[in-house]
Design goal:
CATH topology of one domain: NADH Oxidase
CATH superfamily of one domain: NADH Oxidase
Oligomer: single chain
Number of helices: 8
CATH architecture of one domain: 3-Layer(aba) Sandwich
Helix content: 25-40%
Order of helices and strands: HHEHHHEEEHEHEH
Radius of gyration: 20 Å
Bound molecules: 3-iodo-tyrosine
Shape: globular
CATH class of one domain: Alpha Beta
Distance between the termini: 44 Å
Largest sheet: 4 strands, antiparallel
């Protein structure tokens, strides 16, 4: 085993008031984010999507394996195929009895249905795949670690990056997602994780009137049994 190599890491330390200012500003910016299901068809430059993907890929990952693949689609034919296949699955879930009543009830406030026009209207679809294992240059499988945690964090950064640049998205998980591997020709070691439609919100877009939990509901400090 070779010696691990280290390089200096010395980000500048900020005064506390400046830290607070930035923390409040970042929280306010992120708190203004909403998942969007109504998109404008306006095109979005590919470079913005590239930057969001690069940002996502700064996420920490198990053994730094970066076990993700971001597959971007703006081709109308591929988007149409994805919409058709997603709606077939979603229709079987919503109307074919595949989704239990408890689940349908939980989704009611979101006003979702099997219909997914945004899969064709949004200018970009980015499908994130988890790499169940990597592949060595000689073709041998290479183990990945904490894949779901790693890809989940990368997706979180992806959502934040898109929001910071003024784009909207949705964490869409049509279920089951095997059709995405087929339509996008992905190898077996890549498993669909989340599908992100990306674009500007439609001019008349509306979102469910949801509230976020308060700090006392999401945090605990020094608890003891
Ligand atoms: N995949 C379905 C159902 C769905 C499930 C959850 I959990 C949501 O938060 C929203 C929707 C759909 O996309 O409609």
């Amino acid at each position: 085993m070779s010696e691990p190599r280290f390089v200096p890491y010395r980000p500048s330390r900020l005064p506390e008031d400046e830290m607070l200012r930035r923390a409040r500003a970042f929280y306010a910016q992120m708190d203004a984010r909403r998942s969007v299901r109504e998109f404008a068809p306006d095109p979005v430059p590919r470079e913005l999507i590239e930057l969001a993907i690069r940002t996502a890929s700064t996420a920490p990952s198990g053994a730094h394996r970066q076990p993700w693949r971001f597959v971007a689609v703006d081709d109308p034919g591929i988007k149409h195929a994805i919409r058709t296949a997603a709606e077939a699955e979603e229709r079987a879930s919503y109307e074919g009895g595949r989704m239990p009543k408890e689940w349908r009830d939980a989704l009611e406030p979101l006003g979702t249905s099997w219909q997914k026009p945004y899969l064709e209207i949004a200018p970009w679809l980015v499908v994130v795949f988890e790499e169940v294992h990597g592949v060595d240059p000689d073709g041998a499988p290479r183990k990945n670690y904490y894949v779901k945690e790693s890809v989940g964090i990368a997706c979180g950064l992806f959502v934040a990056a898109l929001h910071a640049m003024g784009l909207a998205t949705l964490t869409h998980t049509p279920s089951p997602m095997g059709f995405l591997s087929r339509i996008l020709g992905r190898p077996p070691h890549e498993k669909p994780f989340i599908l992100f439609p990306i674009g500007y919100p439609a001019p008349g877009a509306a979102v469910p009137d949801l509230r976020r939990k308060g700090l006392d509901e999401i945090a605990a400090w020094n608890p003891r049994p």
